[in-house]
Amino acid sequence: MGFFEENEQNMQTILERGLGILAQNYTVRKLDAGEFAAPITMNTQFRIAHYEIENVGHLMTMYTEGNPQMQMVTYTLTPYFKKLPMISTDFVFGADGGMFMIEVYELVENREDAQYQEWIRKYADKLAELSDIADIPTKPAFYDPFRPVFVSKKRTYDRDAACFQNLIDIMKIFIEQENAGEKLTEEEAAAQKAIQHKYVDDLIDLNGVSTMVWVKDHGADYVRRFFHEIFFGV
């Protein structure tokens, strides 16, 4: 098996395991991505799907197809009903080996709440298990205050399985936190959604790193609809 085929298999493994752990714990319903299901960006075919995770929120998955120079898979879970972080990950496989990010975004009210921060420390402790893998520096961004816990790492072939498992372990913590949390009131849920919605708008208006590529190829109006309706679901 060549590198391209191996990486294709890795991408499907991430998607299957990431979706599978949610399906083991919740009812998952695939939604219609419509015109956003198969965009071409950076001369690369993307395949996009999104899902309702019943009583939890929204999941978006995205992967590239047919481009040996950039094989990428993205997985983003946005919670609606409880005070939970947004979980986002990108794995990129390329000629230089590639990189990956696993990110925990605190798009909630009262982020400093002690009980909430106990859960955030659990995510941080789990990501710390990857500390032996070389970091890839990130540029300062508007969302840094909302993303205190994340890793940006250089891909290491012999650590692929551990990195994939780390994402699943992060999802296990999310599920534990979801099970332990209380449902937000309508007012609290609306306030959390407003924070998430503003974050999505800011990604476009303040030139998020990957966002600029999509805006260049499709225009800001397309990207705004894509991000709100499909990518984040808020």
Structural class: alpha+beta
For the biggest sheet, the summary is: 8 strands, antiparallel
Count, helices = 6
Q: What best-fitting shape do the alpha-carbon axes yield? A: globular
Low-confidence blocks of residues:
none
What fraction of the residues are assigned to beta strands by DSSP? 15-25%
Radius of gyration: 17 Å
The end-to-end distance, rounded to whole angstroms, is 40 Å
How many β-strands, per DSSP? 8
The string of secondary-structure elements, in order, is HEEEEEEEHEHHHH
Average pLDDT taken over every residue: 94
Instruction: Give helix % range.
Output: 40-55%
List descriptors.
8 strands; 234 residues; 24% strand; 6 helices; single chain; alpha+beta
Give a structural overview.
With 234 residues, the chain is α+β, with helices and mostly antiparallel strands. The protein has helices spanning 3-25, 114-127, 160-180, 186-205, 209-218, 220-231; strands spanning 28-31, 40-41, 44-53, 57-65, 71-79, 86-93, 99-105, 149-154. The longest helix has 23 residues, at 3-25.
